[in-house]
Predict the structure.
Amino acid sequence: MQRYETDVIAWANEQAAFIRAGRFDMLDLEHLADEIEDVGKSERRELRSRMAVLLAHLLKWQYQDGFRSKSWQRTIKEQRKGIAGCLKETPSLKTDLAQSDWWELVWSDAVSLAVKETGLDCFPESCPWSIELVINPEFWPE
């Protein structure tokens, strides 16, 4: 039997083989449960990362209007499309969007990214836009 701690890929393949063979008595249930939970965490991390990048670029768009570029525009569009895809594929992530704790973390990430990329330190303490505006393809802050 493969050990989870020494080779997670071999362990995962073995667990899948046990399931397919109906050998449920051989399953490493504790680690399987951990891995299943991690799938959800990965989806949440992707949404958080995409949202932070989107918000950072919206901040740059608003606060550095003289530097607006096709690259920024493309990044904003790509992140909106990626967020829409995340929410379509995993609708339960929509509950994260309604949580103030989650938004605070995302906003903090976005501001840190915007400060790093612009050198500016003048951004609002909290997000000035609603989620509906942020993901709206027609919204471009002025």
The chain has a mean pLDDT of 95. The chain is about 70% helix and 0% strand.
